[in-house]
Design a protein that fits this description.
- By secondary structure, this protein is mostly beta strands.
- The chain contains 3 helices and 43 strands.
- The chain folds into 4 domains: 116 residues, Immunoglobulins (Immunoglobulin-like, Sandwich); 208 residues, Carboxypeptidase-like, regulatory domain (Immunoglobulin-like), CATH 2.60.40; 96 residues, Immunoglobulin-like; 97 residues, Carboxypeptidase-like, regulatory domain (Immunoglobulin-like, Sandwich).
Length: 561
């Protein structure tokens, strides 16, 4: 009998002795609507992850030999939900913690939720407390626009299979370039439709893709007259992008009924021989010529079948290209890529295939007494001309020594996938010359030396952003060198302001700067000197000393309405 009453008492005592649990799950609910019409967006996908970095990106970082610590939290768990017919969604039984929530739907731009108040966690995350039910987690997705029309020739006949591109100017490593936003092939009636276009201004162009076989190459005109062919054509029927008309796309906007009438221009021929690494002719190969400047559709392919490796490319518009050679003979295909400039007179004796890739030996060092581990420090060379050239990458050993192998003859930007915290890029010496912020010209290089010096005496900027005497959250704060010659990506610092309008910029190279805070600004626009002139009067001047901390108070520059 004693045991009968004692057991329940023991269980009750144990329950009382247990520490209070704080793991009671919570819930999130909200809605997704069209930002233009306000209509509900059904079947939108909403991933809720406990990290702001996907495992896939973390794996890529690991391939470069970098630890993702400090670069964002890698997600280990992702919950998913979808909106119903009313555009509503709900997450049940969510363990307490910090989460990153976004909404995605085909035909709309992706959007990440930006929490405010007590729901705001670190790095833009949503903080869910034990048992909390967070409501009104709403999204306003911006719908993509569409551009449609026809590609015609000079007789208003359709040009089937023309490749049509919508291009937008974007900043890439501090340079303004035309980048493709969407590409489509015209059907047999010349009709095209481009439908993945965020709001913005676009240039629309059409190109004719060509596939040449040796037996189909026509001889040049017997009288020596210039050859002409259809070339890349922009709206309104011009071959010059400077003369092209911009097509404006509003959120969810539709522009239809456009016509691109293909223009003819003088074209030239590129002749030469294919030679493999042993000096022998490539008897069977494929040559692909790709235009630069984001023109995905400007491509021609030529099959080579010649005992001496001779080839002839026809209908080539003078300009800059990437030429890719695929050797078909042997046990496995071999591919080489290199830039090619085609002059107005064409090329008669081009040799392809026997290209000597360069090898660059280098070393990275830290200026100062900071203890920064150099082993696995990553560097990469990427094309500076927007051409399709294979990048070259390397990792330093514990002494800072590294090798960049298989460097194709081209111009490159030196980039650093993951710069360690506590240092900044102070100097880049290429073949004995300072090239910090400039291209590395490897066009005629067979070997080279590279010295990278990291500074450890960077300063810090702490500040706030306000608008009409109230904190301005989520402003784009950019610190730009006052000297226009130093306005390259490695010298610029940027950060969003938090929910209280505060910001911190670390590892700032000592020097004079202009600080801006924009409500909305095109990514990279601060590299445009003409744009900066229009807003320079609204900048705050800042002088950063070695290891110094400066305070700034910035006024928000409102977005143009």
């Amino acid at each position: 009998m004693v045991i009968r009453y004692l057991v329940p008492l023991l269980f009750a005592a144990a329950a009382v002795a247990q520490p209070p649990t704080d793991s009671k799950p919570g819930a999130l609910e909200g809605a997704v609507v069209n930002s233009v019409t306000g209509a509900p967006v059904r079947k939108a996908d909403l991933p809720l992850a406990n990290g702001d970095m996907s495992p896939e990106i973390a794996a890529v970082m690991k391939q470069f030999g970098r630890d993702s610590t400090g670069m964002g939290k890698v997600s280990t768990k992702t919950l998913t939900a979808a909106t119903d017919a009313a555009g509503k969604f709900r997450f049940e039984n969510v363990p307490p913690g910090d989460y990153w929530l976004s909404a995605k739907k085909a035909g709309y731009g992706d959007e990440r939720y930006k929490p405010k108040g007590t729901a705001a966690g670190p790095g833009g995350s949503v903080r869910l407390s034990p048992g909390q039910e967070l409501k009104d987690v709403d999204f306003r997705l911006v719908p993509h626009g569409t551009i449609s029309g026809r590609v015609l020739d000079e007789d208003d006949e359709p040009v089937p299979s023309a490749m049509v591109s919508a291009l937008a100017y974007r900043f890439d490593h501090g340079r303004r370039r035309l980048i493709p936003s969407d590409v489509a092939m015209a059907n047999n009636r010349g009709e095209f439709s481009l439908g993945k276009l965020p709001p913005g201004h676009y240039l629309v162009c059409a190109s004719v893709m060509r596939m040449e076989l040796p037996e189909t190459v026509a001889p040049p005109p017997a009288d020596g007259s210039p050859e002409t062919a259809y070339v890349r054509t922009y709206i309104p029927n011009t071959t010059d992008p400077v003369q092209a008309e911009k097509v404006d796309i509003a959120p969810g906007g539709e522009v239809s009924g456009l016509s691109i009438r293909m223009q003819k221009s003088v074209v030239v021929r590129v002749k030469g021989k294919l030679i493999d690494e042993t000096g022998q002719p490539m008897k069977n190969a494929q040559i692909m010529l790709m235009a630069g400047g984001g023109h995905v559709g400007s491509m021609s392919m030529t099959m080579v079948s010649d005992p001496e490796g001779k080839f002839e490319l026809v209908n080539v518009q003078p300009g800059t290209y990437t030429i890719m050679t695929v050797q078909m003979q042997g046990s496995s295909p071999k591919m080489t890529m290199q830039p090619l400039f085609v002059p107005d007179k064409g090329i008669d004796n081009l040799k392809l295939g026997a290209r000597a890739d360069a090898t660059i030996q280098g070393k990275v060092a830290v200026d100062g007494d900071a203890k920064i581990p150099l082993k696995e420090f990553s560097l990469m060379l990427t094309s500076a001309d927007g051409l399709a050239v294979m990048p070259a990458s390397g990792k330093a050993d514990e002494t800072g020594a590294f090798t960049l192998a298989h460097v194709a003859p081209a111009a490159y930007d030196l980039t650093f996938p993951f710069m360690p915290e506590g240092v900044y890029l102070k100097s880049v010496e290429f073949n004995g010359r300072e090239t910090l912020g400039r291209e590395l010209d490897c066009s005629s290089l067979t070997s080279g030396t590279l010295r990278v010096l990291l500074g450890s005496d960077g300063g810090k900027v702490e500040g706030s952003v306000s608008h009409e005497d109230k904190p301005a959250a989520d402003a784009t704060v950019v610190l730009v060198p006052a000297d226009p010659n130093r306005r390259f990506p490695e010298a610029v610092r940027r950060s969003p302001s938090d929910e209280k309008g505060r910001l911190t910029l670390k590892d700032v190279p000592p020097g004079d700067y202009l600080a801006f805070a924009w409500e909305k600004v095109e990514e990279g626009a601060w590299y445009d000197p003409d744009f900066l002139k229009t807003v320079q009067s609204q900048a705050v001047k800042v002088r950063i000393g070695p290891k110094a901390t400066e305070k700034v108070e910035l006024k928000l520059i409102p977005a143009a309405r």
